[in-house]
Amino acid sequence: MSDYRIQGATGEWEVVIGLEVHAQVTSNAKLFSGAATAFGAEPNTQVSLVDAAMPGMLPVPNRECIRQAVRTGMAIGAEINRWSRFDRKNYFYADLPQGYQISQLYHPLVGEGSVEVAPDEKNPDATKVIGVERIHVEQDAGKLMHDQHPTRSYVDLNRSGVALMEIVSRPDMRSPAEAGAYLRKLRAILRYVGSCDGNMEEGSMRADVNVSVRRPGDEFGTRTETKNVNSVRFVMQAIEHEANRQVDVLEAGGKIVQETRLFNPDTGTTRSMRSKEDAHDYRYFPDPDLLPLELDEAFLDDCRASLPELPDAKRKRYEDAGITPYNAGVLTAEVETARWFDTLLSAGAAPVQASNWVASELFGALNRLGKGIEESPVGPEQAAELLALVADGTLSGSLAKQVFEIMLDTGKAPGAIVEERGLKQTSDTGAIEAVIADVLAKNPGQLEQYRGGKVALFGFFVGQTMKAMGGKANPAVVNDLLKKALG
Q1: For the chain, which has fewer Cβ within 10 Å, the N-terminal or C-terminal residue?
Q2: pLDDT per residue as tens digits for the range 415-459
Q3: What are the pLDDT digits (tens) for 34-57?
Q4: Do residues 131 and 170 make contact, with C-beta atoms less than 8 angstroms apart?
Q5: Which residue range forms the structural domain that includes residue 141?
Q6: Same domain flag for 187 and 73
Q7: How far apart are CA 377 and CA 369, in angstroms?
Q8: What CATH number is associated with residue 482?
Q9: Domain membership flag for residue 381
Q10: Are 438 and 464 in contact (CB under 8 A)?
Q11: Residues 466/472/477/482 CA torsion (nearest 10 deg)
Q12: Alpha carbon of residue 176 to chain centroid
């Protein structure tokens, strides 16, 4: 259980959180039409006659959209309902040409599942299971544009009919950190599966945030719903503000009104949008134009067989190979990172050495360059070659850093850089012994102190030897020969 509490003037309050995540399905077309779904297209250029609700147009379910939703359900261990049905949700709004939205209320495609999260990134073993109540598929509405004309609003129907998965959690989260961890993990699973690209800034994944507060152990309080929050950070901010607002209202003797609210990312606050006390009757009924969905065993087997290795399984495989839980968590958090690292391992890199190098050297360089791993100037095969040169003694750690910087700048292979610039580490004992003798001769005072018992000066002699050899001496050989020379 989370120990997150809000300290009010009259005592402690607990937060209860549930998320409804709308994820745009990655597919070749919309849910019931063949229209394209590319982001950023000119308004009303991706609208079929079905999307515009022209008379006589009948919807036809897109098999790929159904397949992706089923695969998502399987990825969270959810029950897949072999029989499901589409319902009409009736309401009037200017961006909804049909006057209804085709959704699934009574018989969703996917039933109960769960997502395991680690709310504290520094303690990946402290996990919590968040229940998922259902996943249903539905069509999106269009978009009203109020900034195109001083007195008129325009409508863009490009999103009308786009396939969405609505992933409804149970009210199992008790802190902003848990909600953030759930949303990050869910996004990672969707992107591993390939059922949603997870680009929250483009609107292809967004969350409705349900928040209520109660005294610890009491019944659930009245909840509010903050609509269409489009980043993990904003979801956490919305929860924190809304929970504190509700505590202030209750402690002042007021009542929480069940309502829909909007989040303002500029101020980190929520504001009332509309009351839900007189909730509209959407007059749901089975869509008469669509037959129920019936899934056969062959379809389910195909969906199951197409699933990739998922984040938790991949992380366990990394840990079993000796990688620390923290590094394993970092490497599996984003699907591009995991794919890059798997290619690095396939190219022959040792798991522990490779994970440490990626987490420190590679990520440090990419942060400095402002690039994601998919834009890395150094590919996994080149990185494997660099790590192999360290493993076989050709390069020391410091020389490897030099070579890596040159690789970032030039894109050249590490072996070629080593040959061109003479950066190979030397283990030539004769050459190293000669340099050691010279170092000892030039530092008689330190030599006398060392032999008089000041053993900490050993590091000084190592440093002087490495400096004299331009960092190219094998440190292990230097250590051995220095011990012999110092007696």
Answers
A1: C
A2: 999 888 877 766 667 878 888 988 898 998 888 888 888 888 898
A3: 999 999 999 999 999 999 999 999
A4: yes
A5: 6-300
A6: yes
A7: 10
A8: 1.10.10.410
A9: yes
A10: no
A11: -20
A12: 16
